Predict the 3D structure of the following.
Amino acid sequence: MKLSTDIGKMHLKNPVMTASGTFGYGEEFSDFIDLGRLGGIVVKGTTGQHREGNPYPRMAETPSGMLNAVGLQNMGVEAFCKEVYPRVAQYDTNVVVNVSGSSIEEYCDVARQIDALERIPAIELNISCPNVKKGGMGFGTDPAMAAQVVRAVRDVYGKTLIVKLTPNVTSIVDIAKAVEDAGADSVSLINTLLGMAVDVEHRKPMLSTVTGGLSGPCVKPVAVRCVWQVAKAVKIPVVGLGGISNANDALEFLMAGARAVEVGTANFIDPAVTMKIVDGLEEYCDRHNIDDINKIIGII
Amino acid sequence: MKKYITDFTVVGRRVYGDAYFAMELEHPGELPEIEAGQFVEVEVKGSREVMLRRPISVHDVDREHNRLTLLVQVVGNGTRRLSQIGEGERVSLVYPLGKGFLHGIGFVPQRPLLVGGGAGVAPLLYLSRCLTAQGASPTLLLGGRTAGLIASRERFEAVEGAHVHYSTEDGSLGEKGLVTQHSVFGKDYDAILCCGPTPMMRAVAREAVRRGVPCEVSLENRMACGVGACLCCVTETREGHKCVCKEGPVFTPQTLGWDNE
Ligand SMILES: Cc1cc2nc3c(=O)[nH]c(=O)nc-3n(C[C@H](O)[C@H](O)[C@H](O)COP(=O)(O)OP(=O)(O)OC[C@H]3O[C@@H](n4cnc5c(N)ncnc54)[C@H](O)[C@@H]3O)c2cc1C
Ligand SMILES: Cc1cc2nc3c(=O)[nH]c(=O)nc-3n(C[C@H](O)[C@H](O)[C@H](O)COP(=O)(O)O)c2cc1C
Ligand code: FES
């Protein structure tokens, strides 16, 4: 049975990847799972310079989900290339770098430096982070601006370019089409939904930034809908994510049109969940006599 | 240290007043190495509100029977749900997590003071066992608003080689007042190790720094992953944000910048 699939020029041994910001650099989970059994790992959002992120508290649990306001805390691209890359280059899986910035120049600068890393087959351009004041989601909510940043990065980055979209827009299809026309090899969706929670005892917001990004099982129906709409409208492969916690969830995304999926928040609840999802996909294909998982992609 | 995800079986339960309970958990095989001050992430099943695991300190370790004990204060939905788990039920733990006590001070103290308040007394039991096993004679100072809120006293008092003292705000047990006002607090120690509410830890750390005694405190930030992957649990330090779950929960006042207030 064939579970392998392709996103642009990147070949995945199975469609199960991990989502940026929820899986560190992979090594945090290597005691629990065999990283080599993953289709890919999308590492932390990386920016031009080191960032401290937002003040604590940055997380609040909500029914079947959580809000985060980490704000792209990361070591910066240079430290990533020097300190982290040699370690992640050893993994027997695709390591994708999630790239963020506050300006087109910053996105391009990071993309250029990652392009030089032989063992990184793709970047995921994050134009959808709700937790930073400048840039971030701003680029992802306007088709013209989204196209502009993607075109600029396309000029300097030759490998597989995935663009991560925000659901916090009226028409995610318009953004996806603009990004496709600008030269993206793939789109991934969804990033977190903008949300908010209040601590009524203390009469204060739960997060230092007041608002934050909602993730987890509660966002899944929104994500499946977005994937279905976008997959119908673009020719490039779609990577689906948002609330995936088991193989059935992953199958929903695949049937709605995703060529691969990413697992995020569920890793916090069960650090071995990705292995169960890979096993579950195999089991499903077995049970339904499916010899190639690509045959069920986009059947809805 | 290698981390595990394992189903434990609840083999014992004990309730302390309205607020606290202890849960004894048995491992299916030999327990891995665990440091005093490390914690576990407990899965909370069957709650509509709770999705994430809850971080809880290792209160006690019984290597002979492959058991560990958690001491939990009921403060919300997650801990309330945990308080309802009965004997024979299974509980999933991700453990052992974080860096325990003594890394920051860098030696094994022989005459340490261990100060705990509220649920913060939890890690001090296993810590006092580890210390006495290495020949130390720790002084334990456990504080609370009232006697009923100082849990697991029988276990602390049974640690051979440890000296246990209490302070309560209402004077119902031990000396009346705050831990920093207790008569043993001012004595001479080679280290002060503390876990409790932040105002208490700050007061203890301030005094330790003033006296030049090596000190460590253990933080309880809100967590999501517990393994250093999500960066939700950070605390401010001299060197910027650090993950409490991975680089802590135990820190020195110097690292936290608590030494110059
Ligand atoms: C490393 C570590 C070790 C711990 N060890 C123990 C232990 O041994 N025993 C024990 O009883 N508890 C311990 N805690 C605290 C325990 O994790 C929390 O009390 C628990 O997660 C609360 O869950 P809940 O669902 O019951 O409450 P929730 O419903 O999540 O919270 C109840 C209320 O408390 C507030 N709150 C919860 N957690 C925090 C926090 N960390 N900081 C500020 N406000 C908060 C919430 O905002 C809410 O108002 C530890 C925490 C950490 C990080
Ligand atoms: C703590 C946390 C940090 C995140 N950091 C990033 C990030 O740096 N870049 C990014 O593109 N998405 C980030 N995300 C969004 C996730 O990658 C994912 O899009 C979202 O959480 C939905 O998937 P899930 O419900 O499976 O978690 C983060 C999410 C969480 C919960
Ligand atoms: S809880 Fe995720 S990094 Fe500490």
